[in-house]
Design a protein that fits this description.
heterodimer, A: Amidase signature (AS) enzymes, 2 domains, 15 helices, about 10% strand, B: two-stranded antiparallel sheet, flat
């Protein structure tokens, strides 16, 4: 058989079901790939022994009726995994071993899969290039000096380099979709509340949402089906019937109305992105969809709003890291307060500190109305833009990012230029909507670019269907040459 | 508005993060450029807009007030940097 790790998750599942490959052979193939890809630095922790045991167990008593039968998976190191170190990319959690499993990963394991390792990410998911991780930069398999996007950069890198058949990330402002776009893969941020936040290291709780990162749309549907679902332990979890996204996948999009927002453009955006967007529109039109010009007038205010709301929530969520109950504690500090201050100063990296300070400031006495309340009001306007548009269209189609993958170090000295990476992805988080980044083409340098489909609340099936039809008719093929082993 | 060094040190104290004197300068520069970016929001008139406090069209669920977990002291203490039998240990607070 040809290299099984080149295949899509769906193909791999078929091969396991028809006994062309055992879970053990599959697991060993991925372990081999991971061991030869240390240069990419995609993993913080590997759990090979445990994975081998699980594969053995599966092969001895296989259950082929599961969604993910005997499939090894690596996940972002933001999901708490029972008895396996969980760092969130931070020094402050460098020795944290959870005694519980996040709901989302538990759902994956209940569907037949098991853990292969924990993937590097920006510290507390704060970053757009994986350069804020305490555990080092992750390299994009697309090119030696390129960032893999962030914050789910270990996830996108591992997926594109065939180190895991599929993976999951979290998306607070674009952390699934932007890395997917940078690596030529598929990434979905589900509707807020569709996947449980329980057991995920919290960043900004009103925005955080876990989602799949995969090679194909079909894989994305399989993963979403496996990980989503109501959870009593998450107070904002949506209680609804589970959907069969993969079984219900259809490629007929005739008559669907697709909105094209005029505001999804920035100064100095490379022509290639516009051209790709045009090409994408033509594909959808040729498939019988109706393109409709729309306006989302408050788009330019989404990022400034996000940089109040997200740091405010982060400053509150990250108050728990005090060196007392778990995690890193500074050796210095004569009294309790000094111990807190040193622990947090040594434990957090620069970007995390910046955001905690922004958040603390905007919530501090005398400034709340001017910043936080103002941001909540603008958030209302941004949501209303989408609500108004969705009375006219079924989905919205935009570029995923304003550029392709950039070089390591290129944007680290200017936080605002880094933040601008998420200009097309952030509005969706503020409005709680589902959005899918689809690989669609490459720029002149051969770096992948993605296009984004935004859906109505809980309309994941429709954007997956549009993505499915798009994928079949888009000539893009992710051709990454293996240079790292 | 702009943030000066003193203000930043004050906010850092509120956030319980000690900041190196040597780093205050660059931190001030970074935070000011971020606030300049954030303050674009002042262009918008939002007097008549209701703040969005939840994006879900559902109110928070309530549940029965009953114990459904517990007796896991060992698990809770397991990750503590410093413990003494049943307690988390912190630097001396009372003389």
């Amino acid at each position: 058989m040809t290299d099984i790790t080149n295949q899509s998750l769906n193909e791999i599942i078929e091969n396991v079901k028809t006994k062309k490959v055992s879970s053990m052979e599959l697991t060993k193939a991925y372990i081999k790939n991971i061991e030869s890809a240390k240069k990419l630095n995609a993993f913080v922790t590997t759990t090979f022994d445990q994975a081998i045991d699980k594969a053995k167990q599966f092969d001895n008593r296989p259950n082929f009726d599961q969604l993910l039968p005997g499939i090894p998976l690596a996940v972002k190191d933001l999901f708490c995994t029972e008895n396996t170190k969980t760092t969130a990319g931070s020094n402050i959690l460098n020795n944290f071993i959870p005694s519980y499993e996040s709901t989302v990963t538990k759902n994956l394991w209940n569907n037949g899969s098991f853990l292969l390792g924990k993937l590097n990410c920006d510290e507390f998911a704060m970053g757009s290039s994986n350069e804020t991780s305490h555990y080092g930069n992750v390299i994009n398999p697309v090119g030696d000096q390129l960032v893999p996007g962030g914050s789910s950069g270990g996830s996108s890198s591992a997926l594109a380099a065939n180190l895991t058949p599929a993976t999951i990330g979290t998306d607070t402002g674009g952390s699934i979709r932007q890395p997917a776009s940078f690596t030529g893969t598929v990434g979905l941020k589900p509707t807020y509340g569709l996947c449980s936040r329980w057991g995920i290291v919290a960043f900004a709780s009103s925005l955080d949402q876990a989602g799949p990162m995969t090679k194909t749309i079909k894989d994305c549907a399989i993963m979403l089906e496996s990980m989503s679902g109501f959870d009593e332990k998450d107070s904002t979890s949506i209680n609804k019937k589970k959907e069969k996204y993969s079984k219900n996948l259809k490629d007929n999009i005739k008559g669907l109305k697709i909105g094209i927002p005029k505001e999804y453009r920035v100064d100095n955006m490379p022509n290639e992105i516009d051209e790709l967007w045009e090409k994408g529109k033509k594909i959808l039109k040729d498939l019988g969809a109706q393109l409709i010009d729309i306006s989302l007038p408050h788009t330019k205010y989404a990022l400034p709003t996000y940089y109040i709301v997200a740091p405010a929530e982060a400053s509150s969520n990250l108050a728990r890291y005090d060196g007392v109950k778990y995690g890193y504690r500074s050796k210095q500090g004569k009294d309790l307060v000094e111990m807190y201050e040193k622990t947090r100063s040594e434990g957090f990296g620069d970007e995390v500190k910046r955001r905690i300070l922004i958040g603390t400031y905007v919530l501090s006495s005398g400034y709340y109305d001017a910043y936080y309340l103002k941001a909540q009001k603008v958030r209302q306007l941004i949501k209303k833009d989408f609500d108004d548009s969705f009375t006219k269209v079924d989905a919205i189609f935009t570029p995923s990012t304003p550029s392709s993958a950039f070089k390591i170090g290129e944007k680290t000295n200017d936080p605002v230029s880094m933040y601008l990476n998420d200009i097309f992805t952030v509005p969706v988080n503020l409005a709680g909507l589902p959005a899918l980044s689809l690989p669609a083409g490459v720029d002149k340098q051969g770096h992948p670019l993605g296009l984004q489909l935004i859906g109505k609340t809980l309309d994941e099936q429709k954007i997956l269907n549009i993505g499915f039809a798009f994928e079949k008719n888009c000539s893009f093929k992710n051709e990454i040459k293996k240079w790292w082993s | 508005m702009s943030l000066d060094k003193e203000k930043i040190k004050h906010v850092a104290r509120l956030a319980r993060i000690s900041v190196d004197e040597a780093k205050v300068e660059s931190l001030t520069k970074d935070l000011n450029s971020i606030f300049k970016f954030i303050e674009q929001l002042n262009e918008l008139d939002t007097d008549k807009v209701e703040p969005l406090t939840s994006i879900l069209n559902q109110s928070l669920r309530s549940r029965k007030d009953e114990v459904n977990d517990g007796k896991i002291r060992e698990k809770i203490l397991k990750n503590s940097p410093k413990k003494n039998e049943e307690f988390f240990v912190v630097p001396k607070v009372v003389e």
